[in-house]
Amino acid sequence: MSIFDSLVIHGLPLVPKFIVGRFAKPYVAGSTIDAAVKSIRSIMDEGAMATVDILGEEVSDRSLATSYTNEYLEIFDVIASERLDANVSIKPTMLGMKIDEAFCADNIEAIAAKAQATDNFLRIDMEDHTTTDPTLRIYRTMVERHGHHVGVVLQSYMRRTADDINDLRDLKPNIRMCKGIYREPRTVAWGAFETVRENFTYTIEKLFRAGSYVGIATHDSHLVWAAMSLIDRLGLNREQYEFQMLYGVDPELRRIILDGGHRLRVYVPFGKDWYPYSMRRLRENPTIAKNVLLAMMGKKTL
Ligand code: FDA
Q: For FRET with 66, which of 53, 55, 148, 257 sits at 20 to 30 Å CA-CA?
């Protein structure tokens, strides 16, 4: 990233929320479940699948975690009644991870049980490194209780990821592999772009060789190519993996992957708490972030 891009990204918090909101609109499927259903239908029309996430961040209040849990339970009912090709993704810190691990595990247990009861699937997202151990502990328990109805996420920037795959091997884990989005200290994460890429291809190969189902979550064309060549080299079939992309990011790449005969799932976030998620997305794209700053200075129309 250039010094200019880095300056642009550091300037983002100064931008008024309504301007960020207008630029962030493509990344969020709306504030209600009805809006999310509409977006999922258009994704399905393209031939893709979806995973639904309620926008939100870490909670410190038990009643808020319980209310998110109940919302997630309802989403499984909506997916079933609307016959959507969609599953659900959750963030443990929204479900009380930082309050009490056992409380969070109970909430995730309720959601995983619902995933199983509706013959659907629950993906446990991975957050910053302070949550990795508890998230993987909860994941292990959920797989023991609900089998293939639950999966988790690993991040290729984490130094520990290959070891985590070794530790989870007995579960034949269902893993979404992504680069990782949180700002992590050097002691826990690889910093260099190329190392994170190489660790991505290294770890997805390791997972495939261990018999795992892998969600290949990236918009990086080089990694898409690396995954496709690995799929070809290992002779994998469509049921052993899926590509995954975020809502609003690079629809053209989405089309290219689908036209190549691969399955692809779009991560569809919705809800009222859109600001932190949108800032993370804008930080990943200095070109859009630059336009946000120009708009704030009255130099560009939205
Ligand atoms: P990279 O950042 O190099 O981007 C590749 C290309 O895509 C670049 O050209 C870039 O400009 C473009 N691009 C990326 N973001 C863009 C944007 N917002 N708008 C426009 N273009 C954009 N992380 C995590 O820590 N825990 C998790 O649970 C998840 N879950 C998750 C699910 C899914 C389905 C995806 C796709 C990603 C995640 N992530 C995540 C985020 C992930 O870790 C990572 O930060 C982003 O995917 C960006 O990394 P890429 O591999 O896309 O490469």
A: 148
Ligand 1: which residue has its CA nearest to atom 15?
284
Residues 208, 183: contact at Cβ < 8 Å?
no
244 lines ligand 1 (CB under 6 A): yes
CB 270, CB 32: distance < 8 Å = yes
Q: Residue 238: exposed, middle, or buried by beta-carbon count in 10 A (0-12, 13-18, 19+)?
A: exposed
Q: Is 165 in the pocket of ligand 1 (CB under 6 A)?
A: no
Task: Give pTM, 2 decimals.
Answer: 0.92
Q: Which atom of ligand 1 sits closest to the CA of residue 265?
A: 34
CA–CA separation, 185 vs 197, rounded Å? 18
Q: In this structure, are residues 123 and 153 in contact, taking their beta carbons and an 8 Å threshold? A: yes
Between CA 49 and CA 54 the distance in angstroms is 17
CB 121, CB 110: distance < 8 Å: no
Active site residues: 125, 176
Q: What pLDDT, on a 0 to 100 scale, did the predictor assign at position 302?
A: 37
Out of 27, 214, 246, mutate this one to test ligand 1's pocket (max ligand atoms within 8 Å of CB): namely 246
Per-run averaged pLDDT (10 residues), the chain, 302 residues: 66 78 83 96 98 93 97 98 98 97 98 98 98 98 98 98 98 98 96 98 98 98 98 98 95 98 97 83 74 63 38
The secondary structure of residue 277, as a DSSP letter, is H
**Cβ 109 vs Cβ 143: under 8 Å:** no
What is the set of domains in the chain, with CATH numbers?
A: 29-273 (3.20.20.220)
Task: Count other C-beta atoms under 10 Å from residue 37's C-beta.
Answer: 22
Rounded to whole angstroms, the Cα distance separating 269 from 275 reads 12
Q: How many CB atoms lie within 10 A of CB 39?
A: 20
Tokens at 9, concatenated: 């990204």
